[in-house]
Protein: Transcription elongation factor SPT4
Amino acid sequence: MSAVKRGRTAPKLNRVCLLCGIVQSLSQFRNEGCPNCESVLHFQDNDDVIRECASPTFEGLVAVRGSSESWVAKWLRIENFVPGFYAVRVSGKLPDDIKNDLYAQGIEYRPRDGSVQD
Structure:
């Protein structure tokens, strides 16, 4: 009879972009970047950015087929993003230096953790 090792859980391989909320595997972020935010966050081949700007902790999952008519996509503010799976709520916020860079580029950052109410 073999013993089962306990105490260490497997790492979560899915991550969520803290800017747009898309859910992808760690390898997708590393190899392809974020399909919505790559031009501003530069995930591709950058483990530091993936660690700082993509959270492994999220709640809910929504599949978006690309229709700008979707009320769920409008509610989540993802109606102009690529089709894919998006988190409803994401734990974590972008670091201040990245928020400042986004602001300088005219990009509004709204945390996806539920802390901002309309």
Residues 96-104 form the longest helix (9 residues). The mean pLDDT is 87.
